[in-house]
Amino acid sequence: MDIIQYKGYEIHAVPLELADTGLWQINIQIFRHSEQETKIRPFSAADSYKTREEAVRNCIQFGRQIIDGQSANCSIADL
Questions:
Q1: Can you give the pLDDT of all 79 residues of the chain as single tens digits?
Q2: pTM (2 d.p.)
Q3: CA distance 34 to 46
Q4: Which of 4, 51, 68, 79 is 20 to 30 Å apart from 42, CA to CA?
């Protein structure tokens, strides 16, 4: 699992390999840690990539876009 810290959040890239095609699909978890609790929100996208490495890079970029509010369909407003 690949993890980065970004603007007070933690992005976990956990791409999934599709059994039927061998391609890798975007799958992430965004964590928000506080002294009282840790909140987690999963996100995924239908995009697929030939290698795990390429998928991880795009997972991280996808997570950054969500945190930056640049995704119309994904939000971390209640994290």
A1: 699 999 999 999 999 999 999 999 999 999 999 999 999 999 999 999 999 999 999 999 999 999 999 998 999 998 8
A2: 0.92
A3: 31
A4: 51
